[in-house]
């Protein structure tokens, strides 16, 4: 099925460990986004990539890095995980005219202990 | 900055009751407005949208009208079902980088 694929779906990390969340879309969308979802706070933008080769900080970028590997893939890296990064992470993509908003992946539930 | 405020939940309803979730926005320009729905354990799905003033978005029995004069985009459904139990997010999209700004979400539970 066409859409946004995120891996892994669940992950438990120890404080200080690193990991990369993977995201790929097969809809030929230009823009890709990483959000985190926390109870009572909605979704907050971490980083985004308006086009292949560009990345920009969102609202809550501290502690994260991203790579837009190609048009399809946009990864999120936690270099040294902290308990405050326990959250559900969503990747999304959008076609150029924005008329349909975003297409979201199913999320990665990350717990940092 | 651009922002969205939606009514706090949780909201609990009986089947066939009417549902209204209020959403207001603050934006410097003319945003597109969206409602997304998140069913338990899943990602967000687009429920409906409106791209200009007075547009009405509708889907699955839900409706919302883009009211520029009141900067609102309230979500309504006349008769809810148990399957409508979910978290609903209001969002606005504005700017050249097309970043969506979300409200905090409203959890709706419909009881049989």
Task: Work out the helix count of chain A.
Answer: 0
Greatest interface and its residue counts? A-B, 27 and 22 residues
Largest sheet composition of chain B: 6 strands, mixed
Percent strand of chain B equals over 45%
**Overall morphology of chain B:** globular
Strand content of chain A: over 45%
Average pLDDT number of chain B: 93
Rg of chain A (CA only): 13 Å
How many β-strand stretches of chain A?
A: 11
Described by the principal axes of the CA atoms, the overall outline of chain A is: globular
Helix content of chain B: under 10%
Look at the structure and give the mean pLDDT of chain A: 93
User: What structural class do you assign from the helix and strand content of chain A?
Assistant: mainly beta
The total count of strands of chain B amounts to 12
From the alpha carbons, calculate the radius of gyration of chain B and give it in angstroms: 13 Å
Q: What do these coordinates show?
A:
The complex is a heterodimer of chains A (113) and B (112). Chain A has 113 residues and is an all-beta fold. Chain A is globular, with a radius of gyration of 13 Å. Chain A starts with a strand and ends with a strand. By secondary structure, chain B is mostly beta strands. Chain B has no helices and twelve strands. The chains are: A mainly beta (113), B mainly beta (112). Chains A and B meet through β4, β5, β9 and β10 of A and β5, β6, β10 and β11 of B.
């Amino acid at each position: 099925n066409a859409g946004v694929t995120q891996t892994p779906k669940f992950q438990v990390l120890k404080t200080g460990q690193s990991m990369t969340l993977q995201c790929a879309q097969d809809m030929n969308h230009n823009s890709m986004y990483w959000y985190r979802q926390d109870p009572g706070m909605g979704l907050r933008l971490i980083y985004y990539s308006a086009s292949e080769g560009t990345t920009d900080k969102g609202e809550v970028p501290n502690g994260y890095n991203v790579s837009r590997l190609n048009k399809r893939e946009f990864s999120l890296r936690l270099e040294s995980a902290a308990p405050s990064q326990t959250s559900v992470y969503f990747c999304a993509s959008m076609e150029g005219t924005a008329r349909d908003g975003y297409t979201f992946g199913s999320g990665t539930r990350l717990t940092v202990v | 900055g651009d922002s969205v405020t939606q009514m706090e939940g949780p909201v609990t309803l009986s089947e066939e009751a009417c549902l209204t979730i209020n959403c207001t926005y603050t934006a410097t320009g003319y945003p597109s407005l969206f409602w997304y729905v998140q069913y338990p354990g899943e990602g967000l799905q687009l429920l409906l949208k409106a791209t200009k003033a007075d547009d009405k978005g509708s889907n699955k029995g839900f409706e919302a009208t883009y009211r520029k004069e009141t900067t609102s985009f309230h979500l309504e459904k006349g008769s809810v079902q148990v399957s409508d139990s979910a978290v609903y997010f209001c969002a606005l999209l504005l700017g050249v980088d097309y970043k969506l700004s979300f409200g905090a979400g409203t959890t709706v539970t419909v009881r049989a």
